[in-house]
Amino acid sequence: MLSRNFSSLAVIMGVLAAPAAMAEQKWSDASVTYLNGNKYEVGDDSRQVMTFEHASGHDWGTTFFFMDYLMSDNGTKEHYFELSPRLSLNYLTKGKLVPEGHFIKDVYLSGTMEGGGKATNYLGGVGVSLDVPKFKYFNVDLYQANNGGGKDNDQQATVTWALPFQIGSAEFLYDGFLDASTKADDHAAETNFTSQLKWNMGKQLFHTKKPVYVGFEYAHWKNKFGIDGVTEKNPSFLLKAHF
């Protein structure tokens, strides 16, 4: 059963990635983020994190990639990455699946590959993009996870959002994600709610074309890494530049 699940997820990832070779790109964005927090759980409590992110939209769907490089005060260095392509079913049906102007903007086949160190996880499932007033985007994905490193498989729901707003001439962005995964024999159910509140100081102070944000991130991660009773409540200083 494990090998069949792995093969199915690998096929999904391949199908999702294949259209990129002949894609019409509609938009793309890249950024680098610096975080500094001292309330981490599991390992050293004080860490600095450098994150590279790239997202793009195509006629066939979307891609999102990020890589974290974590540096702990005790000298430990780690990395973690995720690659998440989504294939639009509206694209495959030539716009017939979801009517224009509907609350559900699109339905996707979703995949994610995530890893760091020795373990790599593969997730496959379905997702929707919702038209929520005032939000730049609001996405919901449901996954079956094939976990590496000997960890039992589980299911995961992921919500991502971005809410821009203004106070006077100042531009702000509140965005983030919620990951909720089910329990299994060898780990507890997890909930990771991480969000960022940031001010576009680049536009207001330096008149940059791309946003340069300053603000903070707050992570509330219940049963971190599936460890029952370990809950991380970590605020971090944030500096983020888009290019």
From TrEMBL:
What keywords is this UniProt entry annotated with?
Signal
Show which residues constitute the signal peptide: 1-23
Domain of life of the organism encoding this protein? Bacteria
Q: Name one Pfam family in it.
A: Channel_Tsx
Which protein family is it in?
Belongs to the nucleoside-specific channel-forming outer membrane porin (Tsx) (TC 1.B.10) family.
Protein name (record): Outer membrane protein OmpK
Organism the protein comes from: Candidatus Thiothrix phosphatis
